[in-house]
Amino acid sequence: MKISLCIDYGLHASSLTLITQKIFNELAKKMNNDKTFTIAATMQASNGIGDVNQHYDCVSVPNMGGYQFPHKTVLSSKNPFIGIVGIDEVVLGEKVFRSNALWKRNKPLIEEQVSKWKNQSHLVPHIHTSTISDKEQIIEYFNIPEEKIDVIPYGVDHDKFRPPENKESARNKICHHYYLKEVPYLVHISEQNWARKNTLGLFEAFRKAKSNGMPHNLLVIGKNDDIVWDKAKKIPGIVMCGYVEEEIMVNIIQGADALLLPSLHEGFGLPLVESMACGIPAITSNVFSPPEIIQDAGLLVDPNDTSDICEKILSFTHNKKLQEDLSQQALKRSKDFSWTLTAEKMLGLFRKYTEKELDTDFENDYDSAAYRTLTTVCQIHPDLKVSAIQDLLEFDYSRIIKWALEVGLEDSLVQDYLIPLKSWLEKNSE
Is the residue at 427 inside a domain? Predict the structure, then answer.
């Protein structure tokens, strides 16, 4: 079975890029050991995904994000699998937009795309989403038959997101980093679309909790505009961290007592599983996906009720036993999520609907697929260090080099990307 993974959908959103990279990485690892399929990374552009009918048994778009209807180049492929997550703009409309002007500008596009789903969904044979909640919304708003939709949860990197060796030390390290008193803190992960994350509503709830004697600070991670920063300045105890590197983000989460994520809508909620993997419970919304994700590993709130959010924050921060119990439940629940499991379920989905498991000699097909995967990654991430490429793609580079020198380097489209790596790859494959 030849699988094509389209990796340039949703590159405007870092979370979508992360999800696609994780799935691709796990499938690439499995390809080396399984030897019943090949996986190649392709792009939506004519240089990639447009020729899938000639080369692949199926093409996967792991995550388009939101309400976008698949591009015709995808739908013209032999066996397309479309991943959808988070149709909040369709479900909640103006509520998840930062301004009325932005909503008015996007409303016609949303209506157009929803109409395409309702009238042309028969062109999309296979759909997968990350939660049952998203599945139910897709059925309701896109009029897609239930039997077309499979649920495949996303994962978490347990090697990166894990409990700290010493919680107090982890907390103090972050406090020193941000020049704070060594007091406990909570963490909120926001984004430029802070309206969906309900960041301002959380700020008001935190202000109420703080006025009731709560000692905790609130560290806010993520890009936000001036409206959010100006609001934060007026509330004691809120620390705006802005964008941080992943290592710092992990450290902040590890030192926190809880993740606060009272979003108006979450398609899956990667911060929820990442925090749980660190043993950090969540105070999160009681609507859409969060209850499904955390189960009993946190507290649920009405995102539209700041008093309810405040009360749950106070009940949590004033109860050490509750904190410890929820922390244990969070760590236990996180074990249900892994990128390896996500990739295995996706591979099972591909096999379920793809007639041919293997239509060529794997040993020969492996080289071409691995080579194409490597060169595609080089095109998309030209600044990626060669060591990072080797970590990302666990291929037999000696074989790829030999094959590439004989065949692949005749392709002018990829020469410029692979040639600079050739000497390094040869050296490291000896």
Answer: no
